[in-house]
Amino acid sequence: MKLYNSLTRRKDEFQTHTPGHVEMYTCGPTVYHFAHIGNLRSYIMEDVLEKFLRYAGYDVNRVMNITDVGHLASDADTGEDKMLKGAKREHKSVMEIAQFYTDAFFSDCEKLNIKRPDVVQPATGCIDEYIKIVSSLLEKGYAYLAGGNVYFDTSKLERYYVFNDHDEEDLAVGVRDSVEEDQNKRNKADFVLWFTKSKFEDQALKWDSPWGVGYPGWHIECSGISMKYNGEYLDLHCGGIDNAFPHHTNEIAQSEAYLGHPWCPQWFHVHHLNTNSGKMSKSKGEFLTVSLLEEKGYDPLVYRLFCLQSHYRKGLVFSWENLDNAKTTYEKLLKRIAALKPEDGPVDQAVVAEYRQKFLDQVGNDLNTSMGITALYDALKAKTNDATRLAILADFDQVLSLDLLSKAEQLRQQAANQAKTESAGGYTITGEGDPEIDALVLRRAEAKKAKNWAEADAIRDQLKAMGIELTDVPGGAMWKRV
Ligand SMILES: [Zn+2]
């Protein structure tokens, strides 16, 4: 597989420290609010990446943190504490907020067919790990104490701005743009490893440490959690592109200073979801959630398809019109799959293997998911029987996770339930074959024939009250439950 690597800024051949095994880490959500669909775009693409690696034969250990402490409004350690902000907004404790939004996040993931990582670790559960790393960084001279807090000294590194395609001055401006400057820092880019003094005297979560009672900075949690569950050599680190700097830059700085060797050679970043008015973000107040999509009648998997149709390294523009297009595509695709006959077999394994190889080559070119969608249409047109076509589609759906076969089967069942009842007079009723409803529909037809409009209308109203939608068609009527 070839994958774009943000560190080398080119497509590299994917490699792992141990052949056939991938240690993968994903920055998880800060659980102070619902995830918006822009955040979820990253998790969808990371899910496809993990599933593709498994499909390609790798065994994967995927780890994700849940940020429930230490993440301030600005990623450069200034501004309000996000968890505290959530707790105040909802008059709940920080722990209650964390539990509620962690559950909400995984419920959204389930609806989007995002697999739960092998390890999910809340940041508050690994305090000893952070203390161990921070102590060692102080010993080695990579960190210093100032104003009660422990800071990482970025000037001690030969190379700090690893994701920087700007020059240092640009980045310094980026840091300066943050809400306020911390006078304790020796260098502008230095960051907090451990807080004991902060303006949040009412910070609910605090732990004892060699530097006093306090709490960890945001960046240290990912290094600590990854080293605990992935080991010293990480193969692949994932996150949204806005995590590249300063968060991932800081993760690399502290991890390599601590380990004394390179930490993670491959970095995968998913780009933003934009609306016509710019990047989708929570700070702007209104944002789109999976629940909102459902309320508006969209299957969450329509959003998954919408994301898969474009490349993860391109900004994606969300609009209702674009989502409607994805919905139409999804429905048409399912209809075509439902029209295939599973009993038209046997499965030709050689053809399945040939399509599988093509899929590996195409999607394996920097996770080209839109080619993966195109491959579904190729499978539908394959010169083979329907059972083989279905086997190919099922194979691809291990990666795409669009529930193609189960949803198509539902459509098939619905069509099979459309029984026809024919009356003696040649009047055909098409519905589910429910005798009670069919009898009412027939009585209405007879009332109409006898020009007894009042009775005909009364029966129609009665059916409506039963949740039945009735349509007159030539030679009969059709009904369905609504
Ligand atoms: Zn992280």
TrEMBL record:
Q: Provide the residue positions that the database annotates as binding ATP.
A: 282
Domain spans labelled Cysteinyl-tRNA ligase anticodon binding: 432-473
Give the residue interval(s) assigned to the motif 'KMSKS' region.
279-283
Its Gene Ontology molecular function terms?
ATP binding; cysteine-tRNA ligase activity; zinc ion binding
**Which residues bind Zn(2+) per the record?**
27, 222, 247, 251
Q: What keywords would UniProt list here?
A: Aminoacyl-tRNA synthetase, ATP-binding, Cytoplasm, Ligase, Metal-binding, Nucleotide-binding, Protein biosynthesis, Zinc
Q: What cofactor does its activity depend on? A: Zn(2+)
The chain positions of domain tRNA synthetases class I catalytic read 14-327
Cofactor comment text: Binds 1 zinc ion per subunit.
Name a single GO cellular component.
Answer: cytosol
SUPFAM superfamilies reported in the protein's UniProt record: Anticodon-binding domain of a subclass of class I aminoacyl-tRNA synthetases, Nucleotidylyl transferase
Which Enzyme Commission numbers does its entry carry? 6.1.1.16
Q: Where is this motif: 'HIGH' region?
A: 29-39
Record's InterPro entries?
Answer: Cys-tRNA-ligase, Cys-tRNA/MSH_ligase, CysS_C, Rossmann-like_a/b/a_fold, tRNA-synt_1_cat_dom, tRNAsynth_Ia_anticodon-bd
Family the UniProt entry places it in: Belongs to the class-I aminoacyl-tRNA synthetase family.
- For this entry, the protein name equals Cysteine--tRNA ligase
Q: Which gene encodes it?
A: cysS
